[in-house]
Design a protein that fits this description.
With about 350 residues, this protein is α+β, with helices and mostly antiparallel strands. Helices cover about 30% and strands about 15% of the residues. The chain folds into two domains: about 120 residues, no CATH class; about 150 residues, Rieske [2Fe-2S] iron-sulphur domain (Rieske Iron-sulfur Protein, 3-layer Sandwich). Strand 1 and strand 2 form a beta hairpin. Helix 2 packs antiparallel against helix 3. The two termini are about 55 Å apart. It is found in: Cell membrane. Pfam families: QcrA_N, Rieske. Its main location: membrane.
Length: about 350
């Protein structure tokens, strides 16, 4: 698109010199493509486009076949075979569509250049005078000029309204900036594990192999000021949520210092993802993998909740558990590290 077909007059450069007027060169002469004059070339381009879209179809079919047929417990160099195959299938599916569309546009669609002159966008003086007069007429019709109280009310409302936004923001300055609270939760030694959201106590004998429980601290075992119904409960619960699963103890890989953190194959980990804090709650029983639905970070519950896929960089913190004299599952202590994503004063 050009501003005009002919540029007349003169222009002033940055140095103050007056440049001579010049002729707009316009657009170059159209150069026909080989396919425009050779039917065989056009047919060849068409076949290439068809092949690229066919590649996309094959990629899509391959993705579906991999999803339904490949086992999800095999890996290549630590990466799940199914994940690799699904990624390659999706790549070819999208690449085929993209390249096919581009090749179609460049070789088969019309490529003739089009020029549209740019016209002045400013309204004429007459139109601007009419618009100003309409505004004056509107002000006169509203009676705001002769109604001082109305004028004062409007001005006052508009002047004071920003305070409704500014005051709460300013009020936050100097508020609680103690980030040390993120290092601890309401889990303590002896706090019993309860189901979320019913709050029912959990006996170790009732937890079967392969089962998963969403867990919170039992309300009667925590301080009254942070129990359900209080102002602080939601904040404290959001840090203390836990996913507990039971598996065959022989399937667990535990470090020496954590061998007593589980009970007969029952392990409990924070549900707060170490990437950006989303709740991880999608447990896959066959692989013991726990998936975060936000960005697909995947943690291996059988091996210290280590990251096996996705953007998370740290394992989920483990809650040390045991059983009390009545057979109920209880916490041995709080988490030994801060839960959730990193923050600026996190030691680890």
């Amino acid at each position: 698109m050009t501003d005009s077909q002919v540029v007349s007059g003169s222009e002033t450069s940055h140095s103050g010199e007056v440049a001579e007027s010049f002729q707009d060169p316009g657009i170059p002469a159209h150069v026909p493509r080989l396919g425009d004059s050779d039917p065989k070339a056009a047919k060849r381009s068409e076949r290439i486009v068809v092949a690229l879209f066919a590649l996309s179809v094959i990629g899509t079919i391959g993705t579906l076949v991999a999803f339904f047929t490949l086992p999800d417990d095999t890996s290549i160099a630590g990466v799940r075979t199914q994940n690799v195959t699904l990624g390659l299938g999706l790549a070819f599916a999208l690449l085929g569509i993209g390249l096919g569309a581009i090749h179609w546009a460049k070789t088969l669609m019309s490529d003739h250049e089009v020029v549209e002159d740019r016209h002045a966008t400013a309204s004429s003086p007459e139109v601007r005078e009419i618009a100003i007069q309409h505004l004056k007429d509107g002000a006169k019709d509203s009676g705001i000029e002769r109604r001082g109280v109305l004028k004062g009310a409007v001005v006052s409302a508009l002047a004071l309204f920003p305070l409704a936004l500014a005051v709460p923001l300013i009020g936050e300055v100097g508020s609680d900036w103690n980030i040390g609270k993120f290092r601890h939760t309401i889990w303590r030694r002896g706090v019993r594990l309860a189901t979320d959201p019913t709050g029912r106590l959990i006996k170790a004998a009732d937890v079967t192999i392969g089962s998963a429980y969403h867990v919170i601290p039992y309300a009667e075992d925590i301080a009254e000021e942070v129990r359900p119904g209080t102002h602080s409960w939601i904040d404290e619960k959001s840090k203390a949520i836990v996913l507990m699963v039971r598996m065959d103890p022989r399937e667990l890989t535990e470090s020496e210092e954590r061998k007593d953190w589980s009970h007969n194959g029952i392990v409990a980990y924070s549900k707060v993802c170490t990437h950006v804090g989303c709740p991880v709650a999608l447990y896959e029983r066959q692989t013991h993998h726990l998936l975060c639905p936000c960005h697909q970070s995947t943690f291996d519950m059988a091996d210290g909740a280590k990251v096996v896929f996705g953007p998370a960089k740290r394992p989920l913190p483990q809650l040390p558990i045991t059983v009390d004299d009545d057979g109920y599952l209880v916490a041995q202590s709080d988490f030994h590290e801060p839960v959730g994503p990193s923050f600026w004063e996190r030691l680890k």
